[in-house]
Amino acid sequence: MHFSENFLYFIWQFRLFNTNELYCVGGEKLQVLNPGVLNTHAGPDFNQAKLVIDQTTWAGNVEIHTKSSDWILHGHERDKSYESVILHVVYEQDKPIYRMNGAVVPVLVLKGLFKEELLLNYNAMMMSLNKFPCAKQIGQVDKICIEGMMSRLIVERFEEKCGAVLEKLDKLRGDWDETFYGFMAGNFGFKVNAIPFELLADSLSQHILAKNKDNNIAIEALIFGQAGFLGEELVDEYPTRLKSEYCFLKKKYGLKPIDKSLWKFLRMRPQSFPTIRLAQFSALIIKSNHLFSKILEVDNLVQLYQLFENLPVNDYWLTHFHFNKSTKQVSVQMGRKSIQNLLINTVCVFLFAYGKYTDQPQFMDRALDFLDLIPAEDNIIIEQYLDSGIKAHNAFMSQALLQLNKYYCTQKKCLNCGIGIKILKK
Asked: How many helices (H) and strands (E) in the chain?
């Protein structure tokens, strides 16, 4: 039989024994009052367990291994933190284990104590060649279980993203507007140009932009100049003017532009070219400097969309994708999906992080409410779950599914997933 210790954790945690009569290797009767809490850090596998062994009640830790000799293999006999273990749970006993004082550690052998179907189901999922382990079963799982897991996943996802936000906030000495500006810039580049956008924001403080808030050309010059696009020879009137303005501002603020070669144009729709995204980014700064302060005041989705709509993008970009190269007229406003991407991955994350950091849960609730109202993302991962009968009705659901796929399905951590556990227990 092939299985990991995680499978034994699963059997122990949910007490999936095929008998109500449990006995330790030494013949002592065992009653499990509480299996304990799974420990994800160093030390014994389950903490705060409560057991009755031969009519004596014990409270402490439980350690689980495939073989009892793994105790020695892992060096537990030299670790004082394992002296608090009240029960050693193993699949099979191949060696007695002793405490430092010479006393035998009580052992429960799981071999023969659980239904073989559990292990067969588990191995089938682990060896599945489907796009994710439970692709054939997930569509049959009840709605309550799915929704419960989705709620857990969205909090996990936001908690994870909050960590990055708060780390950056600390470096910027608690400046929420500057922190938001940096993350929003990264999101403007999507995945392809996220890094150069982040480097741009790091090289150009929002405070400098704020000092020039009444001068549109200065804002555009600072952003395109710091992006490295104004170092080449320029012919058209608009970019020539930007270059002249940037040369003055660069010297005034002691700026150093990033390398233009960092920007990627290949295999991309022209409307997504970094030049167009930089023009939109400039227009957003012009329209709403210190944007995060304004976002905190908005409590409905319509007003939130309005902050990113009708941007004052310079008319030059209506007929250009590059400096000095004209093209037929196109729309330069941000598309609905681009705005939704910003709302999901930056705005909602920051509202959640701000609410958590300042102990104002209304902002955390607002972030989740917005996700409920924003349409689901449409990508290959979401489609995989749709093919298996799980439809993402909104961004709350699609974000949760992305978290599920990244941290559970692709890593085959079915025993840590409420959905996987439900399927296996069936």
From this structure: 18, 9
Give the CA-trace dihedral at 136, 389, 16, 3, to 10 degrees.
Answer: 40
Q: Are 44 and 61 in contact (CB under 8 A)?
A: yes
**353, 163 Cβ separation under 8 angstroms:** no
Assigned token pair, 408: 């559970």
Q: Encoding tokens for residue 174?
A: 């608690």
Two tokens, residue 216: 């549109």
Rama region for 54: left / alpha / beta (φ>0; ψ in -120 to 50; rest): left
Backbone angles phi, psi at 52, to 5 degrees: -120, 115
How far is 289 from 304, CA to CA, in rounded Å?
15
Give me the pLDDT at residue 151, please. Answer: 97
When computed from its CA atoms, the radius of gyration of the chain, rounded to whole angstroms, is: 29
Taking alpha carbons only, the member of 293, 278, 399, 297 closest to residue 341 is 399
Pair of tokens at residue 136: 């054939």
Max intra-chain CA distance, the chain: 92
Output 94-99 pairs: Cβ under 8 A, ≥24 positions apart. 94/67, 94/68, 94/69, 95/67, 95/68, 95/69, 96/68, 97/68, 97/71, 97/72
Could you give the CA distance from residue 309 to residue 312 in angstroms, rounded to a whole number? 9
Label residue 142 exposed, middle or buried (CB < 10 Å: 0-12, 13-18, 19+).
exposed
With a CB cutoff of 8 Å and minimum separation 6, the contacts of 358 are none
* Per-residue confidence (pLDDT) for residue 11, from 0 to 100: 93
**For each successive 10 residues of the chain (426 residues), what is the average pLDDT?**
83 92 95 93 93 95 96 92 94 92 93 89 87 93 96 96 96 96 95 96 95 95 98 93 97 97 92 95 92 94 96 96 91 94 97 97 97 96 96 97 96 92 87
Cβ contacts of 72 within 8 Å, gap of 6 or more: 95, 97
Look at the block and give the residue holding tokens 């681009």: 338
Which parts of 54-206 are beta strand (E)? Answer: 56-67, 85-92, 107-109
Task: Return the number of other C-beta atoms located less than 10 Å from residue 33's C-beta.
Answer: 11
Compute the distance between CA of residue 409 and CA of residue 282 in angstroms, rounded to an integer: 39
In three-state secondary structure terms, 162 is helix
Tell me, what amino acid is at 80?
A: K
Q: 147: how many CB neighbours lie within 10 A of its CB?
A: 12
> β-strands 107-109, 85-92: how paired?
parallel
Note the pLDDT of residue 335: 93
Number of neighbours of residue 361 by Cβ within 10 angstroms: 11
Q: Is the distance from CB of 297 to CB of 243 less than 8 angstroms?
A: no
Phi–psi pair at 149, nearest 5 degrees: -70, -35
Distance (Å, rounded) from C-alpha 127 to C-alpha 18? 25
